[in-house]
């Protein structure tokens, strides 16, 4: 809403300049009375056709088209390097020699966008900034000196997603289940289009396979409780579930709840890389096993499980396979057909969409997968999740999935570069550091590092202008060491020294540089006052024979 409030005070004469004016807005104190925004702009955001049907154009239409109209300063802003990210339908020119040591291709790249304009990226900016439209320019980030690098907790909503949502938050307000008038039909079509976008992202086959929920937590609960209670009612002997010790809390707590209802749960221990062994899963399957559930991308250490082989094993043994893909959807390629995934949970705000919306994928196959509903009421979502659908959130979720389908490869190259840059920088400037989790089979937007002899919470406090975390956002309020790190064999002392860094689509190289510089400074300062670090140095390089020797266990 703050975005809308700011736009209200810009006195827009030309909507194509809205974003240009937005990034120039320096004060926020005078912003108030959001309702006037819609009154002032309502006439310019819709028109009525001869049949009385509303045709809307987004009142931020073309605001992300920077490459035209030099009289109003857009082109000049590009030449001055005002926007750190830029996408157009034209060619993007990169100074090839300047970035010759980058792993990302520096060839001219063709980008498709709704814009009919074209422009050239300022070659003064680094190659890793050649990405998508961004409403926050790097100069303002430098002035703010506050950086967000906790992308596993949540992600910024993409401006294109917000633009798609705005009409459904204003004048397209019909209930998607009101099927006797145009307002309902319009909302219903938007919901079905969003389902299609999600299916395209994961290679689903039928719109009925997507059930919208409030988020991944509800999706996980619906999958586990719904499946287990239904099939246990058909056959009382079916009461066994297989999962791992490094699942998200909502999976572990749901399994513990099912244990109180008489179900048996096997918690498999991963190896030191955080990967669950296929043989362990195979040996755990029993005649009474109903389903197996394994996280796709771990939310704390970023490792990617061997989902395809797990899915094939579950299909061979005739048990259902569920995966929590809230950290994977839109970030790594997913093919539910090839991977034999029966149920999959997704979250909107983890892939640059809005909060409060998620989905559960349920494969349509014979015999049909059946499960009990957790929420009862009007029978929406095939009776599995009753309640009026939040059309604007669903539209945003669907648009975020669509954008991810188009930009996943570029996003992956960008975060991989940042991952390698931070890893090389820290390895060069610091000792006694551990990079947790498998460094190959992983999502590179997630980085978990242990800085020995430095308390993780103290390190976070010393970096209070940089948003990081010491583990899952769902458990970071406690001072207990990460159960994920403990499960992969890391000692409690080292687990307490760990922090998690999350890169995303909007992360800039300036932020990564500042992270590295401040991390090194803070770690060196905290170690300088650490007696444990001093003792380790003395043990390693004793100055004389009288210094006592310390043996670490």
TrEMBL record:
Known EC number: 2.8.1.7
Cofactor: pyridoxal 5'-phosphate
Keywords: Iron, Iron-sulfur, Metal-binding, Pyridoxal phosphate, Transferase
UniProt-recorded Gene Ontology molecular function terms: cysteine desulfurase activity; iron-sulfur cluster binding; metal ion binding
Organism annotation: Plasmodium falciparum (isolate HB3)
Listed name of the protein: cysteine desulfurase
Gene3D superfamilies: Aspartate Aminotransferase, domain 1 (3.90.1150.10), Type I PLP-dependent aspartate aminotransferase-like (Major domain) (3.40.640.10)
Domain Aminotransferase class V: 148-515
């Amino acid at each position: 809403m703050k975005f809308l409030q700011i736009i209200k005070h810009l006195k827009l004469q030309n909507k194509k300049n809205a974003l240009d004016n937005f990034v120039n807005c320096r004060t926020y104190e005078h912003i108030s009375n959001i309702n006037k925004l819609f009154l002032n702009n309502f006439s310019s955001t819709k028109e009525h056709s001869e049949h009385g049907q509303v045709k809307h154009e987004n009142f931020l239409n073309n605001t992300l088209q920077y490459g035209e109209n030099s009289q109003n300063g857009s082109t000049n802003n590009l030449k001055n390097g005002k926007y750190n990210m830029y996408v157009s339908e034209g060619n993007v020119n990169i100074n090839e020699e300047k970035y010759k040591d980058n792993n990302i291709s520096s060839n001219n790249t063709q980008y498709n966008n709704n814009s009919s304009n074209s422009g050239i990226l300022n070659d003064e900016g680094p190659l890793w900034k050649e990405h998508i439209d961004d409403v926050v320019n790097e100069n303002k980030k430098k002035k703010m000196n506050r950086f967000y690098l906790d992308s596993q907790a949540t992600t910024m909503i993409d401006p294109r997603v917000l633009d798609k949502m705005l009409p459904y938050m204003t004048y397209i307000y019909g209930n998607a289940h009101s099927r006797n008038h145009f307002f309902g039909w319009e909302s219903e079509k938007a919901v079905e289009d969003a389902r299609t976008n999600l299916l395209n992202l994961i290679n689903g086959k039928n719109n009925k396979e997507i059930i919208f929920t409030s988020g991944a937590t509800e999706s996980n609960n619906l999958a586990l409780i719904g499946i287990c209670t239904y099939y246990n009612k058909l056959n009382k002997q079916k009461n066994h579930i297989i999962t791992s010790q490094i699942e998200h809390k909502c999976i572990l707590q749901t399994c513990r709840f099912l244990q109180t209802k008489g179900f048996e749960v096997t918690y498999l221990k991963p190896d030191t890389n955080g990967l669950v062994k296929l043989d362990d899963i195979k040996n755990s399957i029993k005649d009474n096993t109903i389903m197996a559930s394994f996280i796709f991308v771990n939310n704390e250490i970023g490792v990617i499980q061997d989902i395809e082989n797990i899915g094939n094993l579950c299909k061979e043994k005739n048990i259902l396979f569920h995966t929590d893909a809230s950290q994977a959807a839109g970030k790594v390629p997913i093919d539910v057909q090839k991977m034999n995934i029966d149920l999959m949970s997704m979250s909107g705000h983890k892939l640059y969409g809005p909060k409060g919306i998620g989905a559960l994928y349920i494969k349509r196959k014979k015999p049909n997968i059946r499960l009990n509903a957790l929420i009862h009421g009007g029978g929406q979502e095939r009776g599995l999740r009753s309640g009026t659908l939040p059309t604007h959130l669903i539209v945003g979720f669907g648009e975020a999935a669509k954008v991810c389908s188009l930009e996943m490869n570029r996003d992956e190259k960008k975060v991989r570069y940042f991952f390698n840059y931070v890893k090389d920088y820290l390895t060069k400037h610091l000792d006694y550091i551990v990079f947790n989790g498998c460094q190959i089979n992983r999502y590179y937007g997630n980085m978990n590092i242990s800085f020995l002899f430095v308390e993780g919470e103290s390190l976070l406090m010393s970096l209070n202008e940089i948003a990081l975390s010491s583990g899952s956002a769902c458990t970071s309020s406690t001072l207990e060491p990460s159960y994920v790190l403990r499960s992969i064999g890391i000692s409690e002392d080292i687990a307490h020294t760990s922090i998690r860094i999350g890169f995303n689509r909007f992360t800039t190289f300036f932020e990564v540089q500042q992270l590295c510089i401040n991390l090194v400074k803070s770690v060196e300062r905290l170690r300088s006052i650490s007696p444990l670090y001093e003792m380790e140095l003395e043990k390693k390089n004793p100055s004389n024979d009288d210094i006592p020797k310390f043996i670490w266990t």
